[in-house]
Each structure stands twice: as C-alpha cells, then as structure tokens.
Amino acid sequence: MFNKETEYALRGLVYVQLQQIKGLKPGIKEIAIEIDAPLFYTGKILQRLVKMGFLQSTKGKGGGFYFDLNKPDVPLKSVIHAIEGDKAYTGCGFGLKSCSDEQQCSLHSQYAPIRASIDKLVSENTVQSLARDFNRGEDILLKRLKS
Amino acid sequence: MFNKETEYALRGLVYVQLQQIKGLKPGIKEIAIEIDAPLFYTGKILQRLVKMGFLQSTKGKGGGFYFDLNKPDVPLKSVIHAIEGDKAYTGCGFGLKSCSDEQQCSLHSQYAPIRASIDKLVSENTVQSLARDFNRGEDILLKRLKS
DNA sequence: ATATTAAAAGACCAAAAGGTCTTTTAATAT
DNA sequence: ATATTAAAAGACCTTTTGGTCTTTTAATAT
After folding, report:
1. What would the pLDDT profile of A7-50 be if each residue is shown by its tens digit?
2. Which residues of chain A have pLDDT under 50?
3. How far is the CA of A30 from the C1' of D11 (A)?
4. Topology of B1-71+126-141 in CATH?
5. How far is the alpha carbon of A48 from chain B, nearest alpha carbon, in Å?
6. Which fold has domain A1-69+127-147?
7. CA-based end-to-end distance of chain B
8. CA of B13 to C1' of D21 (A)
C-alpha cells in the first residue's frame, strides 16, 4: 500500500513514541533493529523526519530521537503525505480517468467510498494513538515482522 | 493505486474490448493513442498480455488485438495479479505486521474491511463489464485522460 | 512469389526507489 | 580542553520501474 520509506517512517515514529512513554530516547541503531529496517536507511529517514518537523533529536552522548510534547499528535496522513504525496489515498486508482464528482467512470462510484475510508483511517489514527494501542504487545507488532 | 504497467494494461484491454464490440481489431498504434500511453511501451505490454493468455493477436495486414470469445470474462483482479502480484489488495498496508486473522495490529481491524472492498471491486469488475459500462462515454473515459 | 503490413522479440536507456557508507558537526562527560 | 558519543550531511551504489528503438517473424493482398 505504501512505499518502503513511508513504512519505515511510520514504524520508526511509533517506536520512538513507545520509548518516550517509558522515558527513553532511542538512537538510530536501536530503532533500526527494533523496527527491522536497514540501519543507514533508517538514519536517513529519521533525519528527514526531523527536518520536516515531525520529530526532534539531539546529538552526542545521551542523544537520540524524541517528540516535542507541546506539538499536537501526528496523524498518519500527515507523515504519508509528507513522504509520498497523496497518491495512495486520492485519485481513481485505475488510471481510467481523474476522478471528480462531476465526471464519473463506472469504477469511480464503487471506489469512492473505499478511498474515503482510507482517508478516514489515516486521518484518525495518529502515531500517538497507535503507540497507545500497541502498548500491549509491542514486541509482536514492531519487532522482526516484515512488511 | 496501481503501477503504470497495470494501468496501461487495463486501459488497453478495455479499449480492445470496446472496439471488438464494434467488430474492429485495433493495432498497437491506435491503442496507444486512444488510451494515451507511450507507443512502444504499449506494444510491449500488449505482447505480455498476449503471452499471458489474456488477449489474442494476429500479425500482418489486417492484424491487431482481439479477445477469444470462448474464454470467460477477465476480472480486473486477474490482470492486476498477473502484472504486479497481490500487494495492492492484500496485506496490512502499513508494514507494522503481516496481517492475519489470529494476530491483529490496531490498524488491521480498521483496514480489513477496506481491503475486502478492494478485493471485491477488482473481482467483480471485468474488462468486459467495464467496456459495457463505458459504451456511453468512451471518449471521456479513455482518451487523453492521464492517470 | 513478393511486397507490404503489423506484431514479436529483445537490446538498450533513463528515472525513481531503495539502500550503503564515509565524513562532518554538535552534544556531553571526564 | 579533550575524548567520546551520536546525529547530520551528503556522496555513492543497486534494483526496479518505466520507456525507447531496431530487428525479426508471420500474415495477407496483389
């Protein structure tokens, strides 16, 4: 559904939040291992997330990644949008036409509610809400489970 | 939602069916123009569809592409699956875990019905049913309308 | 027979996605 | 001050996807 970068980003953000709840501030190495993503690529992605303002970081001893608690919760949609645009949850998805509400292809009317559901899903779920939900079973959900 | 090859393939198949209804047998050039896809790439994709048995063709004068009327209608799902596998309509889509019915992540239960709807959509709609639906407005739906 | 037409085959190229690695910069503990 | 630690920056590489083009093969009309 989403590309690898988005996947790793979402997993990484949820993991950071999960650790933050415990008062910890994980680093790249730990995060990469725990979310089962390539080490250097994870570093690159986390950096991008920091630059985009989704995440904070500090260098040096005791450094790592954490969230600014003053900022509002982060909907999955905003992360997805920042990384890969809105192609995943907008558009007809069949390439037969650009879906609008005036001009409909026969797939449009069937796909419209699906698209709306996806949009709702990624809008309502946040990194924080997922971390909350995941707290009973974090190892099962994040660790060593691919794609 | 789907990759370019799948998009062009679906558009191409629907266009061929649309012409076949009129008793015509279009060639690569015509198809590429009408579905607004790159000429040579369209040729390559059509060849692949023929090799996979979705479509028939004849070379030489009066040649072109057509469907074997003895074969059953072609669900979109079978074309999609043949080209890009089932990644588009199976799996959790969030990469947080592999979705199964035993082991659920909190997104799973929300995403499951969406995935099921997508599966239903591509299973129930066929190249032939789309061509039937498209017959009132073919130019609007296929021609010169990108992605 | 042969000229013409059109698909098949396959080599080749470009861009994007995914991933690796080294060097630089900035914290902090001593 | 300086040694150590860890993120930032960015160069570089690989694979996949998307796309182009030439040559070969097979029909058919004359």
Report:
1. 999 999 999 999 999 999 999 999 999 999 999 999 999 999 99
2. 98-101, 138-139, 143-147
3. 25
4. Arc Repressor Mutant, subunit A (1.10.10)
5. 19
6. Arc Repressor Mutant, subunit A (1.10.10)
7. 10
8. 24
Question: Contact at 8 Å (CB) between A54 and A13?
Answer: yes
Distance CA B33, CA B31 (A): 5
B33 pLDDT tier (thresholds 50, 70, 90) = very high
> What is the model's pTM?
0.89
Place of tokens 């949009």: A119
The domain limits of chain A are: 1-69+127-147, 75-125
* Residue A108 in tokens: 């449009």
Cβ contact B117–A113 (<8 Å): yes
Residues 55-74 of A with CB under 7 A from strand D: 57-65
Q: Which string of b and e fits B84-96 if b means at least 16 CB within 10 Å? A: eeeebbebbbbbb
